[in-house]
Amino acid sequence: MDRTMLDLTAYELARKIEARELSAREAAEAANARIDAVEGDINAFVTTTPEIALERADRVDERLKNGGADGVKLWESVPLVVKDVLSTKGTRTTCGSKILEDFTPVYNATALENFGGDLVMVGKANMDEFAMGSSTENSAYGPTRNPWDLDRVPGGSSGGSAAAVAAGEGWWALGTDTGGSVRQPGAFCGMVGLKPTYGRVSRYGLVAFASSLDQIGPMTRDTRDAALLLQAISGHDPNDSTSAKVEVPDYLSTLEDGISGLRVGVVTELMNAEGVESEVKSITEKMARDLEEAGAEVGEASLPHATYGLPAYYIIAPAELSSNLARFDGVRYGKRAEASGVHEMYRRTREEGFGDEAKRRIMLGTYALSSGYYDAYYAQAQKVRTKIIDDFRSAFRDFDVLISPTCPTAAFELGDKVNDPLAMYANDICAVPASLAGVPAISIPGGLSNGLPVGVQLMSDHFTEPTLLRASYAAEKSSDFRFEMKP
Amino acid sequence: MISEEQVRHVANLARLGLTDEEVERMGGQLGAILESIEKIQELDLDNVPPTANPLSLTNVFRPDEPKPELDRDEALASAPAPEDDLFSVPRID
Fold it and tell me: Which of A239, A390, A443, A449 is the most buried (most CB within 10 A)?
């Protein structure tokens, strides 16, 4: 197979299509062919949509021909992988769950509508059930494998989105991040994963996990692609009352402005967090030094309550999801188990429809919200959240960007942690503080450890994605890592 | 460790059926998870306000005006057992 087109970044491909050197159809055909070739090994998708990709690519080509490039947004011609938790009108949306095996939404998520009506979708990507997990092993549709090493997990919960891009089954993807679900799989698969500021991207049509934390984010080959995809999906939406009425800046225009004088803080508590391997730590330190050489002022930052983030997260997220998943009761959508009475029908539908991790977290969340435990768990966790937000506020007085590992290790082996919930949760220790504070965070590849990619996380204040992307772009320039399609 | 009785109580609150084997396993796993979460109890946060929304957003209002919504057929399209123009459920037990 000719890999030339597949090796381009999304931005490069978009420019070639804009210049009519390639067509959107040729790109869609290349992605479809690549999916046919590697999907047997990777299992990145729950549903592939080759006809939709071709049909919409033809429409984009038609518009390019008729109206010229002016009427077509730069991003529209590039095939996209969509996580299977985003509602796609007419295309089934399973959320990785058996309970939604035959569910076909009747409307599109706003983020997809913003991208454009002719969105060239190649398929719906595999994920941990309802986005709960860090390995994509909690999917009713089988685990996804990491293209860098097929015996390892791609991370999660957006593991299908990450693996698809890493394997060249699409140029870029949308994932969702509640406690690291875009950043950690991005790190494990050697690519960029961006969790925008809470409220930057509408959650309308995103099947809810933890509503005060969920954000849709780009998973891409480099920082420029992340900026372009963020541009495509951002903006206020009257259908999501938590989406922010904050103007969307032009993310590409400031990308290359450099980082002279940018204040970068290395987060002590996350560098020394439990389980962070020494190689991961040294790769993070190297990136901080690279940023310093590129003109930044680097110092030590402190988020004193950062390590309380993990336990607080594992109360708040299950509490919200136990409430959000109450809607799957066999009445309005999804599967229904037969029973003679309505309560038995609820119980059996949910028993048969949900997998182990979903059940565990529904139980955990219900327990934390139940009478007698609410104050000790949920209310206390919400106060920890306030302390973490205060920590960030104080750190951002001294620094523009904070740096830490994305996760403690590189990709682990399939089966390694799936039966040990605490070991799996520990993966999220560096990712959850930014989620709880609602600040934007990006994972970019810092280098390799034993041949596997290691991600480094950059964080910045609410709605300062332009600064975050500028730092990420500079770090990427000075790193010796370049996106590589695998296998 | 969470007692079997507590596990069954919480499962009932969540309208979640569990097999006996799941009840037993869940007791140990939930106990271990809750133990790891205990760490947040060591913080003295008496006068700290709770956070529900990271942007400190409170109420968001919109004008109370009618607008087009899903039509009935669309709304019922995904229902496992629609009957006439309605969602149907088994008898209330």
Answer: A443
